[in-house]
Amino acid sequence: MKYCSECAHPVEYIVPDGDNRERATCTQCGTIHYTNPRIIAGTLPLFEDKVMLCRRAIEPRKGYWTLPAGFMENGETLEEGAQRETLEETGVEVAIGQLLASISVPHISQVHIFFEAQMQSAEHAASTSESLEVKLFSWNEIPWEEIAFPTVKKTLRFYQEDMLAGHIQTRILDIQPQERLKVGD
Amino acid sequence: MKYCSECAHPVEYIVPDGDNRERATCTQCGTIHYTNPRIIAGTLPLFEDKVMLCRRAIEPRKGYWTLPAGFMENGETLEEGAQRETLEETGVEVAIGQLLASISVPHISQVHIFFEAQMQSAEHAASTSESLEVKLFSWNEIPWEEIAFPTVKKTLRFYQEDMLAGHIQTRILDIQPQERLKVGD
Asked: Are the Cβ atoms of B74 and A3 closer than 8 angstroms?
């Protein structure tokens, strides 16, 4: 941020009174411009014993498989955001179930939140503007080496473990920067 | 937002190609300025059979009691944000426990997240720059009529119910606008 979005004056990075961090501050109109972490909301969509993944049509990680997820929008709830992203990326309406994972990714200032979700039928789009391909996978067919993001891989892995253990848990996790380099693990 | 924060040109609110919502868009440099919900991270701090509340020194709801919580900052995890806010508002270092509540508040584009937290001792600040007063309450002493926000009241109420039932749960909730008007309920 170089200019004040309220008055177009150049901003300065200073610590405001009573604060302890530098903020983009306008010395003309006094506006302090805060930036905060963003939420990615998504689902793990299930139909019978299969999970739906989509192959990304856009960067980053174009061509890799992911769970449907994207930036939560103003004015919606977490569940609404997860539902909307699932519809946009797969063409499927889902019923939102329990919270599976809340994963902080501090080096990119994001929190990724995934819900279990039930598909009402096995029908889905073949592709969408955001997905090259949408597909239902048996758990033993999941392309683990081609999963787009560590948050998605962890959410899938924990779900698989929990299914085998017979008890689906809510996981609160962090992803550290070094894990970003091991996306294919 | 009136001006582009990158080049100071006036922004226009238009739907970008491939999008379905109006965004503040710069027709000079092409930057699209997204705004997204913000996260409030906080704790329910416990010492033995008591819970720590703080009386707000700042608006909104100055003078009302709340759990320590505030805006999550870039570069931190949810747990780090909750811990930092607790320290700032009460002078207490806590150990973060399980996730208690994730509450979407869509009319103000926020998500409020509270963790159970253990205090290492009963010591806390008498007051801080953000709290007029900090106090440990027995559950039967909680000033229910003077709780600052519905998200805080719900988190406390559910925790009390869960304690009595002997099983602490993670709650995924929404707060709708009409509930904002009933803060004292």
From this structure: no
Reported as a pLDDT band with limits 50, 70 and 90, residue B130 is very high
User: Does residue A43 share a domain with residue A31?
Assistant: no
Hunting for tokens 């096995």 — which residue is that?
A122
Give the residue numbers spanning the domain of A11. 1-35
Return the pLDDT at A184.
42
Residue of A nearest to B5 (CA): A3
ipTM for the whole predicted complex goes beyond 0.95? no
Option in B2, B78, B102 nearest A99 (CB)? B102
Judged on CB neighbours under 10 Å (0-12, 13-18, 19+), B88 is middle
Query: Is A73–B38 a contact, with Cβ atoms under 8 angstroms apart?
Result: no
Q: Is B180 within a domain?
A: no
Average pLDDT of chain B, as a whole number: 95
Residue B71 reports pLDDT greater than 50: yes
Which residue among B4, B77, B104 places its CB closest to the CB of A106? B77
Residues 6+ apart with CB under 8 A from A164: none
Residue in the block written with tokens 């969408």: A128
- With respect to residue A151, please indicate whether it lies within any of the assigned structural domains: yes
